[in-house]
Each structure stands twice: as structure tokens, then as C-alpha cells.
Specification:
heterodimer, A: alpha/beta, FAD/NAD(P)-binding domain, 2 domains, seven-stranded mixed beta sheet, five-stranded parallel beta sheet, 6 helices, 19 strands, B: Glutaredoxin, Glutaredoxin, eight-stranded mixed beta sheet, 8 helices, 8 strands, about 20% strand, globular
């Protein structure tokens, strides 16, 4: 990543817009590019840093046009692209919305009240919790969901990575560069991650424990061990470790919209072929949406479809 | 040494500061010549120098932490590299950067320069401003970060904004990797990690404004 990153410097100019995009991941930023090109007055809200979850990814190799690019650099490309076509950015968190009023209202944590004729929900998802004993207790004492944020605290130490998907394997690989010992614990007997990531993992010094789940995270002051249970034999063992990185799926950031928007049983938003939700003029794009694939390329596609459809309201 | 800022970023800052900077900003930098004790002092000094060159409203004052003990003490500077900012009236904004503000934290530094040029006028909700009236004794907020943490600038800026708003609050950014002993002392292993008044309170995560202030105020109320 660039040694000095400026992506967070952004100031809103006013309060009333054609399009309000909540979340600046690939879905939101793609929508911002298309909205800008459609001549719509656009604002994008981001509570953390523009880029979304791709900022948590060390290297990206599956977005067309970039054989290999850091998550941070790709986020920068998306962001400057959206800015080039006139999107405004506000580093404010939306805390309350009124999607039934016309125009729709969005209140931020700074107390500002914005309005927009249409809204794109691109709030994405957060890593899901494992839901085991000790997970919350050791949250800031060795349990982490972000290898690029917290990896450096485990230099030369032992870590356990939980999960078998792309995130688990890729972030596990990232940790092999920092930690002394990386053990991936997966509940099945094979990985779900893309083949190329699997091949790299098997070639690396990562260790694997198959058919096993973590049932407890324990220690005194900091994480010292996890309790592992083999799902086939039922046998439990104690595995010593200094850190636990958890990548067992995603949980949607949908809370503030739930009152208005229909979701599936897991909280992912139901949208039609044009990405429009059950509320007219409100769209859902990217990870937040019920969709068979959650990738940068699919989120970007969602954003484009949503904005092209939205132009019918202007 | 080659420039740290890309030409594109330099131009961006020139434009941004031209538009946004109201008054003058004085940045005080404390460094150390002892390289083994301050790996990033030189780099921090250079980036500040390049920053100052983007606007004639920004000046940098370089100080030596070891030789200028009295001055360091006056500003309560405890370790290096350290950065603090004074507005046009010479008023200390009560914000501190300990460690190099690199990666995502560079944005925090820029936001602080802009706020300092406006004499510390920051955007906070009415509710927050009211609650801050309850802070009647000194309160220190230390935000532990890593430069690669995208959630961290939000927490740093919140601590810095509270410091600019309330004359009793000091808001610090601490780059956790550069101060391993301090990070260890507070058990920092997941960032952002916010320590209130040397451990009277703590929380992890970039909370929205209301929740952040709630955490801070709960420590004040307990005291």
C-alpha cells in the first residue's frame, strides 16, 4: 500500500442529492461511477475508509484488468474513478433512515440530515462471529477478524486461522509471512477457497487440521489455547496458540434498514433483477444482497445495474 | 532522499489546502537523533517537511526530544516521534501523533491540519457538545492504531475532535508497532484500541460518534 494514503480526506458540500449511496465498497463505488456519468448528483457515505472489505485483502487477483493488485491500490482506483465523475464523499456513518418519505432522509452520526431521491444500500457485510466461549472475552486479547490490521502483533508467534473459504486461506497465507506458525482449522475435509489459493496454501508452511471445529478460546490474560473438536470422532484436544483469526462467513450490515427492507432469513437484502428492493427507489448492491456470489466483480456489476435502472426516476 | 509524496498527491494537497485552510497552522515535531531509539523519526520529519511545502500557511518547528527537555515537558510530549499542532494564536490543539502518521493515518493528519487552521472548529453533534460539558478534569484518550487498519482513522479523528472541542481532553494517536512496550502494557492486539486515562477505561473498535462519546463519558461518571 502507499506509505501515505489520502483516501480518507473528504468533505461533503451540501445536504440534498439525487442519489445517496451508503457504503463505499466496490458495489457503492461502481454505483457512484455510473451515477456520476448519468449526471445524477451523488453522495457516498463511508463510516471507515473508502474501499470496504477489499481493504482487508492483501492481494487481489480476480478482478479483470488487474492480474495482481493490492486491495488498497484497487480501492484507490475505484475511488478516484468515482471522484473523477463528480461523486461527493462524506466520512459519516448513517445511523437512521426514513425510506418512506419523499425525498428519503438519512441521518448521520454527526447529526447531519441528508436527503436523496434514491438510495443505494451498499453497506456490505462484516466477518461473522464464531459464537464460541471465549470469543468475546479475548476479542482484544488475541482474537481478530482482520489480518492486515492486527497481523503485526503476532510477529514470530503462533496463530490459528478458522475457516476454509477464500478469506481464511488468503489471510492465512498473509499470516505465514508474519507469524511463526499458522494452523488452519476447518470443519470439512477440504477447502472451499479458489483452487489457486488452495495450491499456494498447500505449498506454504501452513498446517491444516481437518474435520475440526473450535469449541472454545481460552487463556489467562491473552489467548493461550483453543479447544478443538473433531466432528467425526467427537474427540477434543487442546491446541496452544497466541492468536485466533476468524473467517467463517459474513454477516450483513442491515440493521438500520430492517424496518423498511425485506431480507432473507440471514439478513441479506432481497432485490429484483434490477437490484431494486421492496421499496421503490431503494436499491441493494454487493455483499449486502442475497446473491450466489460475493466478489468484487459481482458487486461492481450490481452497482451498474442499479443505477441504470434508477434513471427511470429522473 | 527521494520525495515521499507522489506528484499527484502533492498537487491534491496544494489544491485542498488552498481551498480549506483558513488560518496558519504550526506543526511541532519532536524527534531524536538516536536512530536506534526512533526508527521512524527521520521519515516523519521528511513527510512533515513535504507537507509544509504544499501550503504557505503551514510551518514546521523541529525539536530535539533529548536536548529540549523543558519544551517537551511543557507540551507533555512523552515519546518520539511526536507531532502536535498549534493554531494561529499559538493555542495547542491538544492532539498528539506518537509514531509516524503513515498509511491510512496520513488522512488523519491532513484532517487535523485543516481543523487547526479553523482554530479547532470541528463538526460534532449537539448532543456530544453538551455531554462534553461534563468533562471537568483532565482526560486522556490514547488511540492505538496500525497504518494498515482502515477502521482506525475514524477513531483517531474522533479522539482528536473531542480534544479540540473540550479543553480538558487530550487525544493521542499511537502507532502500536512503534511502541511495543506500551502496546503490551495495555494488551493491544486488535486495533483501533482506545485507552482512557491510562487504563481507567478502554474499548476496541471504531464506534460511531454517540457510542464513542458514551464510552468516554462513562469513565468520567465513574470517577
Amino acid at each position: 500500500m502507499p506509505l501515505f494514503n489520502l483516501s480518507n480526506v473528504s468533505k461533503p458540500v451540501e445536504l440534498n442529492y439525487d442519489v445517496a449511496i451508503v457504503g463505499a465498497g466496490p458495489g457503492g463505488l461502481s454505483a457512484a461511477i455510473y451515477a456520476g456519468r448519468a449526471g445524477l448528483k451523488t453522495i457516498v457515505f463511508e463510516k471507515a475508509t473508502e474501499g470496504g472489505q477489499i481493504l482487508l485483502t492483501d492481494m487481489i487477483e480476480d478482478y479483470p484488468g488487474f492480474t495482481s493488485i493490492s486491495g488498497n491500490a484497487l480501492a484507490d482506483e475505484f475511488l478516484s474513478h468515482a471522484k473523477a465523475f463528480g461523486a461527493n464523499f462524506a466520512n459519516e456513518e448513517i445511523v437512521e433512515v426514513d425510506l418512506e418519505s419523499n425525498p428519503k432522509k438519512l441521518k448521520t452520526d454527526l447529526g447531519n440530515e441528508y436527503t436523496a431521491k434514491t438510495v443505494v444500500i451498499a453497506t456490505g457485510s462484516n466477518p461473522k462471529k464464531l459464537g464460541v466461549k471465549g470469543e468475546d472475552e479475548f476479542l482484544n486479547r488475541g482474537v481478530s477478524y482482520c489480518a492486515v490490521c492486527d497481523g503485526s502483533f503476532f510477529k514470530g508467534k503462533r496463530v490459528v486461522v478458522v475457516g476454509g473459504g477464500d478469506s481464511a486461506v488468503e489471510e492465512g497465507l498473509y499470516m505465514t509471512k508474519i507469524a511463526n506458525e499458522v494452523t488452519l482449522v476447518h470443519r470439512r475435509d477440504k477447502l472451499r477457497a479458489q483452487k489457486i489459493a488452495q495450491d499456494r496454501a498447500f505449498k506454504s508452511n501452513m498446517k491444516f487440521i481437518w474435520n475440526t471445529v473450535v469449541t472454545e478460546i481460552g487463556g489467562t490474560k491473552n489467548v493461550e489455547y483453543v479447544i478443538l473438536k473433531n466432528v467425526q470422532t467427537g474427540e477434543t484436544t487442546k491446541h496452544e496458540t497466541d492468536g485466533v483469526f476468524i473467517y467463517v462467513g459474513l454477516t450483513p450490515n442491515v440493521e438500520i434498514f430492517k424496518k423498511y427492507i425485506k431480507t432473507d432469513e440471514n439478513g441479506f437484502i432481497l432485490a429484483d433483477d434490477h437490484m431494486e428492493t421492496n421499496v421503490k427507489g431503494v436499491y441493494a448492491v454487493g455483499d449486502i444482497r442475497k446473491t450466489p456470489l460475493r466478489q468484487i466483480v459481482t458487486a461492481a456489476s450490481d452497482g451498474a445495474i442499479a443505477v441504470i435502472d434508477m434513471t427511470k426516476y429522473f | 532522499m527521494a520525495a515521499l509524496l507522489s506528484e499527484e498527491d502533492r498537487k491534491y494537497l496544494v489544491d485542498l489546502f488552498e481551498k480549506e485552510l483558513k488560518g496558519e497552522v504550526k506543526i511541532l515535531f519532536f524527534g531524536s537523533k538516536k536512530k536506534e531509539e526512533c526508527e521512524y523519526c527521520e521519515l516523519t520529519e521528511q513527510i512533515l517537511q513535504e507537507l509544509a511545502e504544499t501550503s504557505n500557511k503551514i510551518t514546521i518547528e523541529n525539536h530535539d526530544f533529548d536536548d529540549e527537555e523543558a519544551l517537551a515537558k511543557q507540551y507533555n510530549v512523552e515519546m518520539v516521534p511526536a507531532i502536535l499542532m498549534l493554531d494561529a494564536n499559538g493555542k495547542d490543539m491538544r492532539i498528539r501523533f506518537y509514531g509516524i502518521p503513515s498509511g491510512y493515518e496520513f488522512s488523519s493528519l491532513i484532517e487535523d491540519v485543516i481543523a487547526t487552521s479553523k482554530n479547532g472548529a470541528v463538526e460534532l453533534s449537539k448532543d456530544t457538545i453538551e455531554k462534553l460539558q461534563d468533562v471537568k478534569s483532565p482526560l486522556k484518550l490514547q488511540v492505538f492504531v496500525t497504518p494498515t487498519c482502515p477502521y482506525c482513522p475514524k477513531a483517531v479523528l474522533m479522539a482528536h475532535k473531542l480534544a479540540m472541542q473540550s479543553s480538558n481532553i487530550v487525544g493521542e494517536m499511537i502507532e502500536a508497532n512503534e511502541f511495543p512496550d506500551l502496546s503490551m502494557q495495555y494488551n493491544v492486539s486488535s486495533v483501533p484500541h482506545i485507552i482512557i486515562n491510562d487504563g481507567e477505561g478502554e474499548f476496541v473498535g471504531a464506534l460511531p460518534e454517540e457510542a464513542f462519546v458514551e464510552q468516554v463519558i462513562s469513565v468520567v461518571k465513574e470517577a
